[in-house]
Each structure stands twice: as structure tokens, then as C-alpha cells.
Amino acid sequence: MILRTLFPLVAGGLCALSLTRYAWLQYGPQASHPRFQCDQAVADLGTVPVGEERHYAFQIHNSGREPLEVKAMAACTVCTRLPSPTLNVPPGQAAPLPVRLATAGQRKGHQTYRILLVTNDPEHQHVILQMTGELIQPR
């Protein structure tokens, strides 16, 4: 009798546990740490005449529960300018990361410019953003 009464409770508990586990696997846990996300990690600037400047703003999102800190930024070329060495994004919000590309003195052809970010997100401690474009002779 006791077994008949406990079995549905235990089976129901296992079923609820299985559904909870399935939901966690499907949707993932809510991050208790900062979570770095970027709308577009590779920006295509299109065709750019040599000597012109281009401006682009990467949108950095924090989908975690703690503030996201971009602790350091470094451009891999001297023609890429960053506004400041750090960026802070509150939980659940986004912030632009404006970048200025000066193409004076650059060679023609397809170019890729990289930006390295160091964050406090344990899953994305080092992030590389890129800008690509086709540099052409000015008219």
C-alpha cells in the first residue's frame, strides 16, 4: 500500500526533474556572471578609397547578471583607433564600441583589421572583432 502511494509521487518527481533538466539543456541557465555578446563580430566596410576614414560601432551586449567589463582593448594596426581602453556594460544592457579606421598610407586590396578585447566574462575572456574592406585607389 505504501509503495503504491509513494510510486506516483516519486515518478512524478522524476518526471518534473527530467522536464527541468530538459529545459536547462535546451535554454541554458541564466548566467550568474557577465556574458559577452556582439551583434556582429565581423564588420564589412565595403569599398573604401585609400586615404579616407571609416567609422563603425560594434554593439556589445551583456546578457549576464553581473556587470561586463572590457578591461583592455588593442588594435592590431596603427590605423585603427579606439575611443578608450575600457568599457563597462551593465547587466541586460548594450553599449556601442566606436572604432575609427584611417586608411591613409594603406595598400590597396582586401584588408582585415582586428581588435582584441579582454573581458571579465569567464567564457569569453579574449574576443577578436574584425573589420574588413576592399581598399581602392582614390578617384
What features would you describe in this structure?
This protein has 139 residues and is an alpha+beta fold. The chain folds into two domains: 1-29; 36-136, Immunoglobulins (Immunoglobulin-like), CATH 2.60.40.10. Helices cover 19% and strands 47% of the residues. The protein has one helix and nine strands. The protein has one helix at 2-27, and strands at residues 36-38, 42-49, 53-62, 68-75, 80-81, 87-89, 94-102, 109-119, 126-136. The strands form two sheets. Strands 2-9-8-4-6 form a five-stranded mixed beta sheet, with no helix packed on it. Strand 8 and strand 9 form a beta hairpin. The protein is elongated, with a radius of gyration of 24 Å. It starts with a helix and ends with a strand. Mean pLDDT is 81; it is low at 1-28.
